[in-house]
Specification:
- It is built from four helices and ten strands.
- The strands form three sheets. Strands 3-9-5-6 form a four-stranded antiparallel β-sheet. The protein has a four-stranded mixed β-sheet with strand order 8-7-4-10, with no helix packed on it.
- A hairpin with a 2-residue loop joins strand 1 and strand 2.
- It has a domain of about 120 residues: Jelly Rolls (Sandwich).
- The longest helix is centred in the first third of the chain and has 10 residues.
- The chain is of the alpha+beta class.
- It comes from Henriciella marina.
- This is DUF1214 domain-containing protein.
- It holds the Pfam family DUF1214.
Length: about 180
């Protein structure tokens, strides 16, 4: 599973915060040839970390691999950046092949819910939750990752990511039998 460049062996400047991982050599002049090849392979717009940082999670809060046979609640609060988004990618680091039009959640949607400092959304293969609940589709994703992008990150995040970032929590709500 790819994890939008961030899974596999550490090839650069690895950062881990509560199950979310990043590699801050992405977009840096000092990135080694392996990082550059991964960026080219997956088509990531690799901005310098002063412009954007990328964190990926492939497991829920219990350590189980994210899977389209399960339903999750992703929740969090204010993020240390000017703007942020969370996007779902399948095991090949692509958007899942579906026409649901619901593959990401961002700061704008958090503000629209009226609680940018306390937001949540559901990840599931079908939109059959509660009315008004924000949904991100995992249909046809198989095992998947969530990528958190923080644009124009705060200086504190760049200096001390382990203390400055309170990453989203991914809780499993339900899984079909045999999904794990």
């Amino acid at each position: 599973m790819a994890g939008l460049l961030l899974s596999g062996p550490r090839l650069g400047d690895g950062v881990k915060v509560n199950g979310w991982t990043s590699d801050w050599s992405i977009g840096a002049d000092s990135a080694n040839p392996y990082i550059r090849a991964r960026v080219a392979r997956f088509g990531l717009l690799a901005l310098r970390k002063e412009k954007a940082v990328y964190f990926t999670a492939a497991r829920d809060s219990d350590g189980n691999r994210l899977n389209d046979k399960c339903i999750y609640r992703v929740s969090g609060g204010e993020m240390p950046g000017e703007w942020w988004s969370i996007t779902l990618y399948d095991g090949d680091s692509r958007l899942p092949m579906n026409d649901d039009g619901a593959l990401s959640f961002d700061a704008t949607k958090a503000a629209d819910t009226g609680t940018p400092e306390n937001w949540s959304f559901r990840v599931s293969p079908q939109q059959n939750g509660h009315p008004g609940e924000v949904w991100v589709s995992s249909r046809n994703a198989d095992q998947f990752d969530l990528t958190l992008r923080l644009y124009l990150p705060d200086d504190a995040l760049l200096a001390r990511p382990e203390t400055a970032l309170k990453p989203p929590v991914i809780d499993e709500l339900f899984c079909e039998e045999g999904a794990a």
